[in-house]
């Protein structure tokens, strides 16, 4: 991708352990709507496989992001451990982090966007980040289906933990105003 002129590549979403993702097919094209529906489910080989690939080197002129998430079977109460595991493993190899709490394809993941769990997660990651001599930017990937109150809460948390930015947005769960009859 760097040879095609991309300015950065974001890898992931990667989880601590490998997981197969959701059953296939996972990607549906809606030509009449010029849209896609995805149900990937964080299919990946796990963070150690990604680290091994990154150890082989990267072109100096490309920015690499590490998009991190929790494993599907990890309860939300233990999600911070999953994010921290991937954060620590990828830290030497990526230029920034995207914290994915907004995939509609991982059961209950979006509950991490609520005030208490999000504050805990981002505080722990930022604390870990700031212990390094050269902290990396941390961005939060949010859902497009948030209420205005949720957005306000997230903005407060981002200011509180001094996060570097937001990736807006992940995949919507709404199917309003489509021309295609969706029964997928």
Describe this structure in words.
- The structure is a single chain.
- With 184 residues, this protein is an alpha/beta fold.
- Helix content is 28%, strand content 19%.
- It has one domain: TIM Barrel, CATH 3.20.20.
- It has a five-stranded parallel β-sheet with strand order 1-4-5-6-7, covered by helices on one side. Strands 2-3 form a two-stranded antiparallel sheet.
- Helix 1 runs parallel beside helix 2, helix 2 packs parallel to helix 3 and helix 3 packs parallel to helix 4.
- It is globular, with a radius of gyration of 17 Å.
Oligomeric description of these chains: single chain
Largest sheet: 5 strands, parallel
Number of domains: 1
Q: Proportion of β residues?
A: 15-25%
> Strand order across the biggest sheet?
1-4-5-6-7
CATH superfamily: Aldolase class I
| Rg for CA atoms | 17 Å
What are the secondary-structure elements, in order, as H or E? EEEHEHEHEHE
- Derived from helix and strand composition plus strand pairing, the structural class reads alpha/beta
**CATH class category label:** Alpha Beta
- Could you estimate the helical fraction of the residues in percent? 25-40%
What's the rounded overall pLDDT mean? Answer: 91
Q: Give the N-terminus to C-terminus distance in angstroms.
A: 31 Å
């Amino acid at each position: 991708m760097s040879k095609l002129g991309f300015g950065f590549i974001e890898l992931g979403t990667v989880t601590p352990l490998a997981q197969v993702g959701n059953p296939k097919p996972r990607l549906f094209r809606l030509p009449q709507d010029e849209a896609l529906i995805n149900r990937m489910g964080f299919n990946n080989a796990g963070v150690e496989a990604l680290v091994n690939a990154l150890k082989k080197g990267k072109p100096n002129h490309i920015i690499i992001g590490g998009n991190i998430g929790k494993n599907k079977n990890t309860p939300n109460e233990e999600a911070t451990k999953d994010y921290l595991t991937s954060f620590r493993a990828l830290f030497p190899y990526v230029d920034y982090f995207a914290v994915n709490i907004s995939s509609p394809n991982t059961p209950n993941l979006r509950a991490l966007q609520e005030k208490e769990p999000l504050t805990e997660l981002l505080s722990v990651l930022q604390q870990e980040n700031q212990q390094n001599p050269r902290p990396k930017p941390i961005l939060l990937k949010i859902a497009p289906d948030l209420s205005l109150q949720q957005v306000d809460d997230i903005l407060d948390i981002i200011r509180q933990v001094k996060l570097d930015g937001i990736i807006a947005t992940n995949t919507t769960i709404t199917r309003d105003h489509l021309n295609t009859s969706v029964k997928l």
